[in-house]
Amino acid sequence: MSKTIREKLEQADVAPDVVVVEDEVEKLMWNALVDLHMRNGGRVNSSTAILQATYAGATVTPFLEKRLNLGYGCYGCRDAADIRSSETVLGFPASALSGIVAHREYLGEKAIANSRSKKADAMLNKSQDGEREQAKADCSAIEGEGVVKSDN
């Protein structure tokens, strides 16, 4: 006999078949990347019906197909559960939990922190700011030569 038990993983009295994680999309993206890292690359293939299917997609697909599945949410779960608009759910076979934890720790050593630091974004914005300042200076230099000045 099968039954569905919904409780926090650390409080579970029985070993789960599937683990469902509800969180912000960016955080779940890292779990999906961990799955790719564990499989040495590839692509994430998600399956969802969107209509009344969030928890079904996060449990049934990982259980039957023995793989991670990421959903977008549905109006039913967003009405009936406390999932915020910036969140969704991801499910994976519980047998993958220890590997996911280990690979997540590995990515957490550098990749996650680097991405969240937004250094590349800051450098790009600094470069663009410099280009804008140079363009303004160029416009100022030629303004007296009968060229129409742009406000951009």
- Strand content is 5-15%
Categorize the overall geometry.
elongated
Let me know the largest β-sheet. 3 strands, antiparallel
SSE class: mainly alpha
Which range best describes the helical content: under 10%, 10-25%, 25-40%, 40-55%, 55-70% or over 70%? 40-55%
Number of helices: 6
Summarize the helix and strand pattern as letters: EHHEHEHHH
What is the end-to-end distance?
68 Å
Low-pLDDT windows of residues: none
Specify Rg, calculated over alpha carbons. Answer: 23 Å
Q: Could you tell me the mean pLDDT?
A: 82
Number of beta-strand segments: 3
Please outline the helices and strands.
Blueprint lengths: L17 E7 H14 L15 H12 L3 E2 L4 H6 L6 E7 L3 H13 L1 H7 L1 H24 L10
Antiparallel strand pairs: 1-3, 2-3
Helix pairs in contact: 1-4
What distinguishing features does this structure have?
mainly alpha
Please characterize this protein's 3D structure.
- It is a single chain.
- By secondary structure, this protein is mostly helical.
- The chain is built from six helices and three strands; from the N terminus they run E-H-H-E-H-E-H-H-H.
- The chain has helices spanning 25-38, 54-65, 75-80, 97-109, 111-117, 119-142, and strands at 18-24, 69-70, 87-93.
- A three-stranded antiparallel beta sheet has the order 1-3-2, with helices on both faces.
- The protein is elongated, with a radius of gyration of 23 Å.
- The protein starts with 17 loop residues before the first strand and ends in a 10-residue tail after the last helix.
- The model has no long low-confidence stretch (mean pLDDT 82).
